[in-house]
């Protein structure tokens, strides 16, 4: 059972990545740029620093750096240095990012609709809870192994 579960989760992850990559490509974004921009848009009104994204998204610091540089070049954000710590840069979204929000959200909702259309709402709630438990367990295991 567990081998099938892991295999199914891997296949689902690969499919979701491929689908998302195509959706983001149509918007002129890489998958990482789309994920990052979506996260930033979902955190509107919060003070977000580049250093926060590594932890929040689970994307490497170097990938975050390249992604933010590219999003800045594309006009989706700008960076403001923190006067008390010049290593920290606050991320400010532009109007162009605000205009992209509807497209990204629509794409994600469409993907979620396809993914979940045959699963009853009650089962989806249980599934989401179980997946969050699995994710937390794996993160904890990873932290324990890093200490060894």
Explain this structure.
By secondary structure, the chain is mainly α. It is 72% helix and 10% strand. It contains 6 helices and 2 strands; from the N terminus they run ααααββαα. Helix 1 (2-26) runs antiparallel to helix 5 (95-116), helix 2 (31-42) packs across helix 4 (61-73) and helix 3 (50-57) crosses helix 4 (61-73). The radius of gyration is 18 Å and the shape is globular.
Provide the fold topology.
Elements (H helix, E strand, L loop, with lengths): L1 H25 L4 H12 L7 H8 L3 H13 L3 E6 L2 E9 L1 H22 L4 H27 L1
Antiparallel strand pairs: 1-2
Helix pairs in contact: 1-5, 2-4, 2-5, 3-4
Using brief descriptors, characterize the structure shown.
10% strand; single chain; mainly alpha; 148 residues
Short description:
By secondary structure, the chain is mainly alpha-helical. It has helices spanning 2-26, 31-42, 50-57, 61-73, 95-116, 121-147; strands at 77-82, 85-93.
User: How much helix is in the residues?
Assistant: over 70%
Number of strands: 2
Measure the end-to-end span: 29 Å
Radius of gyration: 18 Å
Kindly report the average pLDDT value. Answer: 90
Decide which structural class fits the backbone. Answer: mainly alpha
Count the helices. How many? 6
Looking across the biggest beta sheet, what order are the strands in? 1-2
Largest β-sheet summary: 2 strands, antiparallel
Tertiary shape: globular
Catalogue the unreliable spans. none
Listing every helix as H and every strand as E from the N terminus to the C terminus, the arrangement reads HHHHEEHH
Estimate the strand proportion. 5-15%
């Amino acid at each position: 059972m567990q081998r099938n579960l892991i295999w199914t989760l891997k296949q689902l992850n690969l499919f979701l990545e491929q689908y998302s990559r195509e959706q983001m490509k149509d918007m002129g974004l890489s998958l990482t740029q789309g994920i990052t921009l979506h996260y930033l848009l979902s955190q509107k009104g919060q003070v977000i620093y580049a250093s926060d994204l590594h932890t929040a998204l689970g994307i490497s610091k170097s990938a975050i750096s390249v992604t933010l540089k590219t999003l800045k070049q594309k006009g989706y954000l700008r960076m403001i240095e923190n006067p008390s710590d010049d290593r920290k840069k606050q991320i400010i979204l532009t109007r162009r990012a605000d205009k992209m929000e509807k497209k990204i959200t629509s794409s994600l909702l469409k993907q979620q609709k396809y993914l979940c259309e045959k699963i009853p709402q009650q089962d989806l709630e249980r599934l989401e809870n179980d997946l969050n438990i699995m994710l937390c367990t794996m993160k904890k295991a990873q932290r324990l192994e890093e200490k060894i």
